[in-house]
Amino acid sequence: MLLTLAGCVVGEKESEGGSEAGSDSDAAPATTTTGDSQTTAVPTTTGDSGEVTGECSVWAQDCPAGAKCVPFDSTGTGVVDSTRCIEIAEPAGKAGDPCTAEGGIVGIDDCDADLLCWLLDPDGHGTCLPLCQGTPAAPTCGGGLVCDVSNGGLLPLCLTTCNPLASSCPSGQTCIPSMAEVFVCDGDVSGDAGAYGDECEFLNVCDPGLLCTTATNVPGCAAVGCCTEFCDLSLAQSMPEMCSGAPDQECLPFYDPGAAPPGLEEVGLCGIKM
């Protein structure tokens, strides 16, 4: 990407009640959260396997019979930071079913094997979403979904793709960059904040249509990162005022030349050209 997302964390945070100024794009180091919390953009791996160590492996699913390995929020802050084995509920929710995370803690849920209760509301109710299959080097998802790996490699979720210029994400979700070099729908945990110029650290804490990017891209930003708008490169010449920070800001390409996936060629981000 041509923009630097320095300072934002790539990951996902679930709301208590989940990719990033610093995610897959070079906007600003950002993390995604599962609600009101946040996580980081570039997965951290160990050894040569590309896997992150922990109590168990979400890829190998090496827990005892009757249990599943899940991404886990060990601190109860809404940020996935480890893995653990939990007993599979009976009956267990299937993909797309409503679910409950006990105490609102990500990872302790009533979804079936290979599923995680995500997109949590303040009461800990969410939806069972598939975990990626395969390996960290060759992840797979069914049903036309894309594997989005965040939170230092601990959170591999199968998510729906989207276009930030014409997002079709459901209410309560926002379109953010993923490690798969495309955009995916994930939980919007911006709350009362997330407007243009607001301070941010995580990918999904800005309002829909905006992204957390490094302070160098937003005039007057005094934090590590601030929210700025996505913009349409095809309209950049005719509508230079489309960026709230104009004339200091302009619509800059989100992808490097020739690197944009089909349908995302006109995606830009309002920033300051260096």
From TrEMBL:
Residues 21-40 have a biased composition (Low complexity). Residues 13-51 are annotated as: Disordered. This is Lipoprotein. It comes from the Bacteria. It comes from Nannocystis pusilla.
